[in-house]
Design goal:
The chain is 26% helix and 25% strand. It is of the alpha+beta class and 463 residues long. Strand 17 and strand 18 form a beta hairpin. The longest helix has 17 residues.
């Protein structure tokens, strides 16, 4: 998977269903986003591109261009159903955290407790425990794919390298995957030390994790995802499956042939045992709701603690601070979901082409959207004025305003008639003539109001 490398100079460091809103973007930005959709669609030869951008619980922009079926000329919309491939892992990770919240499992449970067919062998042939958390964070040391996927990748290579006709592509069936689990060996040490944005990404790990979760929940993966996640979030056009039929039209996938300057359809893909890793479809509107759930303090799926754990530990998410993201890819489809937890902004991009580079498009989107939601410079000094009490103690200090300047009662004897000077956004210093200083770091709440102060390595709360 390609790294997400944003280059943003401007950046400083029941869930309600999303509603369309204009906040934060003007007509010029909307026009530039629409131009971007068309431009990147042509640049990467995608029959269609759909983009939805979210701030908190609102879709602040949605746009699409192209066709989900080139023969029938069916236009792409925010409600078109695309294969989301590895973005499925975010739903599996959500299921994992829900079962953990219900105390039906622990993060450190050995997966062999639920899937004894897995031996957990190292390269040296020694069996060792593999925790559910390791699987969920891609730190188990397992290879990317199971040997039972040999036919899938052989057929895919014959299709792309030799242009051989392939009617359909199949991941291994459950029985074949279970047999393979007894022979799989770890490729890397578990919890190998790597840069924060890198993992030994493993589809096997999520196939194995999903199988364990099914057995814990005592229901099928598809039934759990549909009834417990999709239903509760109102994801009416999201489900388990990758193949279109008359009752459930899923976008047709394509690949572009450079030598012929033309598109050819890609074959149907059946996820089978790899369903928890790559077996779902969704729409931009539904994934916008899923994004909003990551920001809500009234999340019907997970506690705030669970959401923060997923984000900070990389459970389901791939981390590239200050962003979290996940990409899905398969012959005929590329998609991506990105969130900025601090600014509570995110977006989803859906395409029906084999090759699409998201990095440039992400840079384009972020440069247009994030400045509207980045922390604005402080102009109202009055919001810092007030009494601050030491949390867990009896002491308190005052910050007051006099003749347009800020002062504090803290260390007033040592810093007589000394003004507080801004040294950064929400940061001030108290400095004497000898250059000795004290740093005040103010912390705003979700609505931007000052609620806490970090001072002298202690926490103070504004009354």
């Amino acid at each position: 998977m390609k790294k997400l490398l944003f280059n943003i100079v401007l950046l400083m460091s029941v869930v309600t269903q999303p509603t369309f809103a204009q906040h934060g973007i003007n007509d010029s930005i909307r026009n530039q986003l629409e131009i971007g959709i068309k431009g990147f669609k042509e640049r990467y030869h995608s029959p269609s591109v759909v983009l939805a951008i979210v701030h908190r619980d609102s879709i602040i922009f949605s746009g699409s261009d192209g066709f989900i079926d080139l023969d029938q000329k069916i236009p792409a919309t925010i409600d078109s159903k695309y294969q989301i491939q590895s973005v499925t892992k975010l739903f599996t990770a959500t299921m994992f955290m829900q079962l953990w919240q219900k105390k039906l499992l622990t993060l450190e449970d050995d997966v062999r407790k639920y899937v004894p067919e897995f031996t957990g062998l190292t390269l040296k042939g020694r069996a060792e425990a593999t925790s559910l958390l390791e699987l969920a964070t891609h730190t188990s040391g397992l290879p990317r794919n199971a040997p039972s996927e040999f036919e899938l990748f052989k057929d895919a290579e014959m299709l792309t390298l030799k242009n051989r006709e392939v009617k359909s592509l199949h991941s291994s069936h459950q029985s074949t995957f279970l047999n393979a689990l007894g022979m799989i060996r770890k490729e890397y040490p578990n919890f190998e030390y790597l840069p924060i944005d890198q993992r030994h990404y493993s589809n096997i790990g999520y196939g194995l994790l999903g199988l364990a979760l099914e057995r814990v929940a005592k229901t099928s993966y598809a039934n759990y995802i549909q009834s417990t996640i999709c239903h509760n979030l109102g994801l009416d056009n999201t489900g388990v499956g990758t193949v279109s039929n008359e009752e459930n039209r899923i976008v047709q996938g394509y690949r572009y042939l450079n030598d012929q300057k033309d598109f050819v359809k890609t074959p149907d893909y059946y996820a089978n045992a790899m369903t928890p890793a790559s077996g779902m479809y969704s729409t931009a509107r539904d994934l916008a709701k899923f994004i909003s759930a990551q920001f809500s303090d009234k999340n019907v799926l997970l506690s705030e603690k669970s959401i923060r754990m997923m984000q900070s530990l990389g459970i389901g998410w791939q981390r590239n601070y200050p962003y979290l993201r996940h990409e899905g890819a398969m012959l005929g489809f590329r998609c991506e979901i990105v969130i900025h937890p601090r600014l509570e902004v995110g977006w989803v991009i859906l395409t029906n082409t084999t090759d699409f580079e998201f990095n440039r498009f992400d840079q384009y989107i972020s440069s247009l959207i994030l400045p509207a939601y980045a922390e604005a410079p402080i102009t109202d000094q009055g919001q810092y004025v007030g009494k601050y009490s030491l949390v867990g103690g009896t002491e308190s200090i005052d910050i007051y305003q006099k003749e347009g300047k800020l002062y504090t009662t803290y260390l007033a004897d040592s810093f007589p008639n000394t003004t507080l000077i801004f040294s950064g956004n929400h940061t001030m210093t108290l400095e004497d003539q000898a250059g000795k200083s004290v740093r005040f770091e103010f912390i705003p709440d979700r609505n931007g109001k000052i609620s806490l102060l970090n001072l002298n390595q202690l926490m103070w709360q504004k009354d």
